[in-house]
Specification:
56 residues; mainly alpha; 2 helices; flat
Length: 56
Amino acid sequence: MPLHDAVALAEIDLYTDVLAAVSEADAPLTTEELDRVLGVRPRTTASPAPARVSLA
């Protein structure tokens, strides 16, 4: 009986998208490029930005 974890599969899919984008880039991805790859929509309010997480 196969076991499917939808959250884990979604995370793997996002990670794969990021790795593909990084492998095609000539330089580190900008925040905007990373947001685009992850499908993050731009903020529409003037609220402060959340803390950044370094992937390095």
